[in-house]
Amino acid sequence: MLPPFRDGIDRRGFLRTGSLGGLSLAEIIRLQRASGAEGKSKKDVNCIFIFIIGGMAHQDLWDMKPEAPAEIRGDFLPINSKVPGIEVSEILPHVAGVTDKLAILRSLTHGDPDHTAGYHVMMTGQHPGFGGNFNRNVTNNNMHPSFGSMVARLGRNTGSFPPYVSVPNFLNSGGPSFLGPSYAPFVIEADPAAPDFSVRDIVLPEGVNSDRSLRRQSALRVMNRFEQPVETLSRQEQSLDTFYDKAYQLMTSNAARQAFDIDRESLATREAYGMTSVGQCCLLARRLVEAGCRFVTIENGHWDTHRKNTESLRDLLVPALDQGFAALLNDLDERGQLDSTLVVLTTEFGRTPRINVMAGRDHWPQAFSIVMAGGGLKRGLTIGATDKQAASVIDRPITPSDMAATILTAIGIDPDLTLHTPLGRPVQLAGGGRAVHELFL
Fold first, then answer.
1. Rounded Cα–Cα distance for residues 36 and 182 (Å)
2. In DSSP terms, which residues pair with 427 in a beta bridge?
3. CA of 237: how far to CAs of 213, 224, 261, 366, in Å?
4. Of 282, 324, 369, 391, which residue has the fewest beta carbons closer than 10 angstroms?
5. Whether the Cβ atoms of residue 323 and residue 88 lie closer than 8 Å to each other
């Protein structure tokens, strides 16, 4: 066991990113390099992936059924949007103004009403549990890599900026599975709407100036040489120095610090997104993809409206999402970046057609809606349909595997690509799903 530095930070702590599952940033870079480059994306399309935890009530937002009985249709009325013929809920007034930039997919379907399995299937495109190994009591039991980890592994990732970032928390089933921890997300673990928002691990520790950090780099190299077997030094020494140099470059990079520094945005821009967690996460995501991040996951949770569905959606949940999501699409479009940034708004399942005795809606995976925008996809359309009660898909069913294939295709990764687990088991990225061809020009 090597002693700590004199100021109390141990040798690993110098470059430690605790939110990366115990690996240092240098170790992550090393493992990524070792995995090769086969199957790399042929496009420079990024992705901002907004995940609504708990299940969006599709019939209250995206797939209104105004002719249904009151206990089915709920309390909200549909409103016209910017695209003739497309209606959304009255509690989505900002989104109504940007429907010309998005596609509403109203026919998602899968068969598992469990939250844990729902996270997994909608974060990875594949149902968990091959071989009966899925443990529903473990929130991050990744049996398949998440989309972000796929992009970290196969996307066109350059420079030292983390290719996969999760904000403001690690999202369940957002892990790398058999790809290994080097393709886990860099988790910010802070709310960008908080007045004291800051990001760990991208700046030197307090009290460590550039001269001291350079001396530490030298000390780290010396200590790593002592740890390595003599016969491996000649072939590893140079590459190990390179990996630590890259981690150090991120920590001392003005561009990285600026990307994470949301205070650099004008007050008018921040207010346009809304001074809410989801609004500021959307703004930060835009900054990160501009800086070179390839995949940003945004967690927006607590949508499990088993009781008081109307009040929860109208007063607590929807206004912030409506403002932040619409502002993100407008901002990307005005900057000329929407075609190179795929934005996905999704969830683990929908909510029951019938309102329950607690004025809520329960879990319903048989039919629900998600939204996609940008990334070169067609704009201003709806795809798929449900029956008169929003209970069953009656036109163009879309599975999570189809969603996976669509995302990967838009980013430029072959959804039919087969990778192998450490034990040699072949795994097709999108599980045989077919991209939603109606979305592609």
1. 13
2. 419
3. 20, 9, 34, 55
4. 391
5. no
For 31, 112, 159, the CA distances from 19, given in Å and listed in that order, are 17, 30, 20
User: CA 406: distance to chain centroid?
Assistant: 15
Q: What are the C-alpha distances in Å from 105 to residues 231, 397, 427?
A: 57, 9, 27
Best CA proximity match to 236, nearest among 38, 36, 33: 33
* Residue 437 structure tokens: 């061809």
pTM of the model: 0.83
3 state SS for 153-170? HHCCCCCCCCCEEEECCC
Task: Report the distance separating Cα 92 and Cα 334, nearest Å.
Answer: 21
Superfamily of domain 35-202+253-439: Alkaline Phosphatase, subunit A (3.40.720.10)
Q: What is the DSSP secondary-structure string of 186-227?
A: EE--S-TTSTT---TTSSPPTT--HHHHHHHHHHHHHHHHHH
How far from 340 is each of 152, 242, 299, 440, CA to CA, in Å?
17, 31, 22, 14
Rg of the chain on CA atoms, in Å: 23
Beta bridge partners of 395: 385
CA distance 1 to 355: 60
Q: Are 11 and 4 in contact (CB under 8 A)?
A: yes
Greatest Cα pair distance in the chain: 77
Amino acid letter, residue 326: A
Residuewise pLDDT in 10s, the chain (441 residues): 434 333 343 434 433 333 444 444 555 555 555 444 456 777 889 999 999 999 999 999 999 999 999 999 999 999 999 999 999 999 999 999 999 999 999 999 999 999 999 999 999 999 886 544 566 666 666 789 999 999 999 998 877 788 999 999 999 899 999 998 889 999 998 999 999 998 876 654 455 444 544 444 454 444 444 444 444 444 344 434 444 554 565 666 677 888 999 999 999 999 999 999 999 999 999 999 999 999 999 999 899 999 999 999 999 999 999 999 999 999 999 999 999 999 999 999 999 999 999 999 999 999 999 999 999 999 999 999 999 999 999 999 999 999 999 999 999 999 999 999 988 999 999 999 999 999 998
323 phi, psi to nearest 5 deg? -70, -50
Calculate the CA 1 to chain-centre distance: 37
- Rounded to whole angstroms, the Cα distance separating 39 from 414 reads 7
